[in-house]
Amino acid sequence: AHERLAALLAGQGAKAEAAASLKAVAQLQPGEAKPWKRYARAVEEAGEVEAAVEGWRQVLAEDAEDPHAHDELGRLLTRLGRPGEAAIHLRAVAEADPENLRRWKRLAATLQDAVDIDGEAEAWRRVLALAGGDGQAHERLAQILGAQGDKAGAAGHVRVLAEADSAKARSWRRLARLLD
Question: Which region, left, alpha or beta, applies to residue 82 given φ > 0 means left and ψ of -120 to 50 means alpha?
């Protein structure tokens, strides 16, 4: 009954009321993640991002390994400007799907926002393990290693960039010589 009411309310534009009805359904079904997923989607659609975060956390309380819930939490926490929390969930998603280049790049960018330099560098290394010629990964690793004083390591990444982009090769080679 609550689910039909939620559908009717949503159809009439009463998104917040529909979400409240879906929350009642979720609370009546302990041990089930699906109702919490419907609730989280509904409250996000109603513009209640913090409530959506709590909804996805409830999904994880029911199923700690749910990759979709981790992905949604990572996305929403990033949107809320909480990259450190987001990175925890995005790491879980990347590690669950280790061959997914896009997930590792997203994790690396989030870790950069969280100022987790070591974690970011590791994520970019995973990107390079999957796509050795990824210019973004080489460029960011060159910056990180240069800032850490590893000029030889940074120069190696700059050389790869120089070889890959003939239009900018001269500038990259000049920078690599400065780092040596």
Answer: beta
> Residue 10's pLDDT is what?
52
Length of the chain measured in residues: 180
Q: How far is CA 2 from CA 18, 20, 117, in A?
A: 9, 9, 47
Q: What DSSP letter does each residue of 98-157 carry, written as one string?
A: TT-HHHHHHHHHHHHHTT-HHHHHHHHHHHHHH-TT-HHHHHHHHHHHHHTT-HHHHHHH
Residues of the chain falling short of pLDDT 70: 1-21, 24-25, 28, 169-180
Give the model's pLDDT for residue 13. Answer: 57
**Whole-structure pTM value:** 0.80
**Residue of 7, 27, 28 lying closest to 17 (CA atoms):** 7
Contact predicate 56/72, CB 8 Å:
yes
pLDDT at 11: 53
Q: Which two tokens stand for residue 61?
A: 């309380």
Q: Give, in order, the Cα–Cα distances in Å from 177 to each of 41, 85, 107, 155, 169.
A: 52, 39, 31, 7, 12
User: CA-based angle 54:55:60, to the nearest 5?
Assistant: 90
Indicate the residue type of 103: R
